[in-house]
Specification:
Number of domains: 1
Oligomer: single chain
Shape: globular
Largest sheet: none
Distance between the termini: 39 Å
Strand content: under 5%
Number of strands: 0
Number of helices: 8
Helix content: 55-70%
Order of helices and strands: HHHHHHHH
Length: 203
């Protein structure tokens, strides 16, 4: 009796192990990753970094003169968006890249369900859009760093460019932002991840 039980255990072991792989990668996105500050997942880190970046744009709205203080705020914003010495690697773009990587790994896992494959693709699309918007916002920051004054238009454009990272962008001007495709951003990725967690029983 022991030999059949042992054989059955060995046969089932890879299945039991792989059954955790897709979910493990998803958990790195929404729950925990050892290299992130406080061990949090890539998604909560991205949301945290976005909130800080948004707060910086609100501070910058209060000044027209690009003095030393404003330059420091711009440098801080750039660090939050794409990383520099002010952020120790805990920047929005790095967090978003981690999201893309681990959602892709979850979809490639041998035990990934159809839901994981479909949702991971949509989450990655929205996250890649957010990465693009973060790079565009950082380009605006770089342009402002060389100016001596900040106009109302400068501040409005920077605020909008930063907001698109989270909200997505209405590219076809139809008054709506599609929940997937080329328009969605971090908010839609967060919603999709919540839906996937529910479908996979991870709540």
């Amino acid at each position: 009796m022991k030999l059949p039980v042992l054989l059955l255990t060995l046969l089932l072991a890879p299945v039991c192990y792989s059954a955790n792989m897709a979910h493990s990668h998803l958990k790195h996105v929404y729950d925990a990753w050892h290299s992130n500050p406080d061990g949090i997942g890539f998604l909560p880190l991205a949301l945290e970094q976005y909130q800080q970046a948004h707060a910086e744009t609100l501070i910058l709205q209060q000044s027209n003169t690009a003095d030393a203080y404003v330059k420091r705020r711009l440098n801080r914003l750039s660090g939050l968006l794409t990383g520099n010495a002010t952020t120790d690697g805990a920047d929005l773009s790095s967090a978003l890249s981690g999201m893309v990587k681990h959602t892709a790994l979850s979809a490639m896992a041998i035990d990934a369900t159809a839901n994981v494959v479909d949702y991971a693709d949509a989450i990655a699309q929205c996250t890649n859009n957010a990465l693009r918007y973060a790079a565009e916002a950082d380009d605006r920051v770089e342009a402002l760093q060389s100016k001596t004054t900040l106009t109302d238009a400068d501040r409005a454009e920077l605020t909008a460019a930063t907001a698109w990272i989270y909200t997505g962008r209405d590219l076809n001007n139809d008054g709506d932002i599609a929940p997937d495709g080329q328009e969605c951003g971090l908010r839609q990725a967060d919603v999709l991840m919540g839906a996937l967690k529910h479908l996979e029983g991870l709540n």
